[in-house]
Structures are given as C-alpha cells and as structure tokens.
Amino acid sequence: MKKLLLLLLAVMAGATTAMAGDEIIYLSYIRSTGHQAFNTGYTHKANTIVEMDCNVVKDHSQNYEALFGGRLGSFGNNAFCFLSRFNGRDIPCFNRSGNEMTSEGFVYGERITLLCSYRGAVWYRHDESEEAGSVNTSGTADGGKTPMLLFNLNTSNTEGGVQVDTSPCVMTLYSCIISENGFPVREFVPAKKNGVVGLYDKITGSFSGSITSTPFEAGEVIDNPSNNPWGDKMGGWCGKPEVNGGKNVYYTVSPNEAGEDTLSIRKSPDAVGDCGMASYDKFLDNNNPAPWIDWEKVYDNYYINNTHSNYIVIEDGVTSIGKETFAISSIVNFVIIPASVTSIGKYAFNTMMVSDVACYPNPNTLAWGEEDPYSREYEFNLFNLKSTKLHVFAQYLTAYQQKFSNLNATFVGDLDDFIDGVAPIRATEEKAAIYNLAGQRLDKPQKGINIIGDKKILVK
C-alpha cells in the first residue's frame, strides 16, 4: 500500500475579501483588440506551466502578437512567452531559453487550449485530444525577473518592472491557469467589477482590468462565480450553514491523468466570518449525507456510503471539520488536516479506511470529538484497530498520545523529518519513474510532492 510521507499545503498570499458593493460579475469571455494588456502580478519560475483557453485572431498589424509573456531586457533564459507570429511571419514562436519556432501554422480563428512549460508549447483545438501543433525546446530555463502579462509581453529593463510591448495580440480569453509543479497558483476567469472588465483570480481573490488606457470587451454575463467558485469541476458549498449561508467553504472533486480523484476542501475567497465545515447527520442512512458521498442501499434502511476520491486535502484556512463530515466506508489513500483546523467533530472520520493522515494542528489547541470523546474509538479503520497512522510533528507527539489516547490511530512523530529532508529521494530516484500529483512524468524530482515508485516523496 502506498505510504504517505507528506503533502505540503500552499498558503496563498495576498487573498482579499470582497466588500459590499464590490460584486464580481462573471463573464463568458473577455476580448482584446490589440491595444490591451493584463498584469498577472506573477513572476514565472522554472517549473511554471501556463494553460490558456483562448481564440486568437490573425491580425498582421503587429510583429509578434504575444499571447502572454515576461522577460527582463532581451530574450534569454529568464524569458517565458508565446508569440503567435515571429518577425512578421505566420509561424508561432515559444521563447524560454532562446527562440524556438515551428514550421507548422498556428490555429487562428478557432478556440484552442494552449499549454506552455519549460519544455515547450502545445495547442489543441477545443474539445479535441489530438495535437494541432507544438513547439519544443531542449534548453534549460531560469525563473523570471518581471511579472507576466496576458494579451501582451512585458519587456521591462527593470527587475520587477512592467513595460507594455508594442506587439499585443487580438484574442478572446475564456480562462488562464498558472501552475507550479502541477499545483495551480493563479486561476484567472473573465469578470467585471464596478463596471471594469478584466480577470478575477479565484485563488488570490484579486481582480484587475487592462493596464492600458483601452478596456477589454466583455462577453455575456454568466452565473456569478461567487455562487460557483468550483467552475466546471464537481463541487459545492460545504461551510457551516448558519455562517454566510454556508458559502465560506467549498469543495471540488478533480481527477488527475491517472484517473484518481482528489477531494479538496477550501476557504472561499469571499469568506466572511468562521470558515468551519458543515456537520452531517445519520451516517448509517441517507437522510443528510455529505455531498461527496454516494450511497448504496444494502437492505431495509441500512446503507453503505462511499466516495470515489483517492485523496482528501483540506486546505489551510479551513478552521473546523464538522460532525460525520467524512464518515465514509471507503478506502482513501491519504488525508491532509491543515494547521488552521482547531476543532474536529465527533465521528468526523467514522469507519474511513485510510492508512495515512498528515495532521498539522497543534494538539494543545485542537478539540477532537469533545462533545463525545467516546466517538474517537470509532474513527478511521474500525475493522483494523490502530492501523491508521497519524503523522504529526515530533514536538507534538507526546501531547497527541496523551490527549487523544483513545483515538483509533497510531501517532507517528515524523512529519517534521519529511519537511526538512530529501534523503529518501536520492535512494530511489534512479530506480523508478517519477510523476507529479497531476500524473505528469518528470525527468527529475521537483519541489513539492513527487510520486516515485509506489511512494510519495516531498522535495522542499
């Protein structure tokens, strides 16, 4: 069975809370006319991946027609950009460590998905799995020195500065996701706020429009993302219903390329007040099940409850786990409980068959089943006593063992070792294929969680 070493939770900086009167109105798209630019505020790293859902118009009025990009001065290892035309020719150019071009024509006038990493760029026609074109590079790449722009190229000669290039593109943008090692760090969607048309980042909660004097054109208004922050994924609200109507916390279920699902629990960017999860009742029937649970009736009024998620990741910012929230009779690879959690309701993990849990909270400030301490004996794998390992920080091990001695789990004080050390990787990296959590094969271990053989290893 796979062993969990650690999943490092990223704390997204710069999140803002929506104020009254500053409603975000979501749009189906925004469009540039060749005179706009959007500052992502993000400086790319060597492991950055950009995914754009867009439609680029063949303009011919500009030399490069950059879809996105950032560089310091001239092109070089710090540059990361995609140009739909190069030197006035109708061939795309990807620049990460030198100009890399292809003789294949770019797909103009059609909706496409464009993926760019340090390895190159590839694009697909919308809803098609066959490549429509690509640009590859074998060079190395450094991190960036200037923030990336969308619809344009940042050509500033000052580190951290912004200079709009004279070669923007004409493009309709439906979404843009920026990731590091497969983990999204920016998720831009078209939106309007206070009459300004631009992009809203669902991760940081920030919004801005064009940084030029020409505004973006707006698509149709769609369901407000404040009511649907999970986009096209399976998802829904799961916060305490008495606080902000339950809309302080939401969940998504997302598959990776290996066909494994991750159930993620997140604090809403528009959260106001307590960010605790809802409680659910009667785990032995389907009167009030958690929304991620499927039910199968066995006989009379008895049910088996299951989830198809292989991983459960509760992200930092969520403050409590409700009663019977994860009372599921299913096999789950691992669970992450962040340091922000201070309360876990009774039977929260009743009968869950999980081998490893990464448990970050300080036990001295953590309440677990306080309304019924007897319930701790029924947490996790009920049919294999103490088989679930709770990985905690070494300095908290004794406190966990004393305070929660009747919890149906074995405490292991090795969480800090996995954060600080990368020694386990060197012993295995030459013997097994390496993947990230998105199922993408890697040439070598990268920062974050790496799947090496049958183990998950952290590189810090």
Structure in words:
With 460 residues, the protein is mainly β. Helix content is 4%, strand content 35%. The chain contains 3 helices and 34 strands. Strands 1, 2, 4, 9, 10, 11, 13, 14, 15, 16 and 17 form an 11-stranded antiparallel β-sheet that branches. It has an 8-stranded mixed β-sheet with strand order 18-19-20-23-25-27-29-30, with helices on one face. Residues 1-21, 295-305 and 418-431 have low confidence and may be disordered.
Spatial extent as radius of gyration: 24 Å
**Helix-strand makeup class:** mainly beta
What proportion strand?
35-45%
> Which percent range fits the helix content?
under 10%
What integer is the average pLDDT?
Answer: 75
N-to-C span: 24 Å
Number of separate helices:
3
- What sort of overall outline do the alpha carbons produce when their principal axes are compared? elongated
Question: Which key features would you list for this structure?
Answer:
elongated, 460 residues, mainly beta, 8-stranded mixed sheet, 34 strands, 3 helices, disordered N terminus, 11-stranded antiparallel sheet
